């Protein structure tokens, strides 16, 4: 099984979850953005993000399963993740999002795009109650609850993927 985790993270929460999923599934990990930049970033940073986006699209063609993570902003997926989902060619995808207050249509919007494109969605997961940049500040006991959910999501991905490829 060849898996790839692609994520966009604005404050580090989605990145932390994506890293753990990639570790558990022995998957390659690619960001869609540079979380260190402020605002729109420099021209060089914007160019680097275009390169990251295109690299993720290219790499997604080479895997059996793509896992995509997005933060929730204004109750929807990040616009760059929406653009990525509209262009990706992966045969099977799993989705996850991180958010604090309201999830809105974050995963639903992405699911609709995948369905229209006839891409098999095998699992989704929501990691909620994470304030901006909070994950890095959580104590170990609280982090364990999130990591437990990551483990369960990773198991669901693996099991469902195996069933659907038989």
Overall 3D form: globular
Gyration radius (Cα, Å) is 15 Å
Tally the helices.
Answer: 5
Mean pLDDT: 88
Structure in words:
The protein is of the alpha/beta class. The protein has a single domain, classed as 3-Layer(aba) Sandwich (Rossmann fold), CATH 3.40.50.360. Helices cover 46% and strands 21% of the residues. It contains 5 helices and 6 strands, in the order βαβαββαβαβα. Strand 5, helix 4 and strand 6 form a beta-alpha-beta unit. The chain is globular, with a radius of gyration of 15 Å. The mean pLDDT is 88.
Notable characteristics:
166 residues; six-stranded mixed beta sheet; globular; alpha/beta; 5 helices; 21% strand; Rossmann fold; single chain
Quick recap:
With 166 residues, the chain is of the alpha/beta class.
List the helices and strands and how they pair.
Blueprint: E1 3-7, H1 13-25, E2 28-31, H2 43-60, E3 65-73, E4 76-77, H3 79-87, E5 92-98, H4 106-116, E6 120-127, H5 140-164
Parallel strand pairs: 1-2, 1-3, 3-5, 5-6
Antiparallel strand pairs: 3-4
């Amino acid at each position: 099984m060849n898996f790839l985790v692609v994520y966009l993270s604005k404050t580090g929460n989605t990145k932390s979850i994506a890293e753990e999923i990639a570790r558990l599934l022995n998957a390659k990990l690619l960001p869609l953005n540079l979380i260190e930049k402020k605002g729109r970033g420099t021209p060089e940073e914007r160019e680097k993000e275009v390169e990251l986006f295109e690299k993720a699209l290219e790499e997604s063609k080479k895997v059996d399963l793509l896992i995509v993570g997005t933060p929730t902003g204004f109750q929807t997926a990040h616009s760059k993740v929406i653009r990525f989902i509209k262009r990706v060619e992966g045969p099977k995808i799993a989705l996850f999002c991180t958010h604090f207050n309201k999830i809105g249509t974050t995963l639903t919007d992405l699911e609709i795009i995948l369905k229209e494109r006839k891409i098999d969605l095998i699992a989704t997961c929501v990691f909620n109650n994470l304030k901006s940049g909070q994950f890095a500040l959580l104590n170990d006991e609280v982090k364990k609850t999130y990591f437990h959910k990551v483990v369960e999501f990773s198991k669901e991905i693996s099991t469902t993927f195996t069933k659907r490829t038989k």
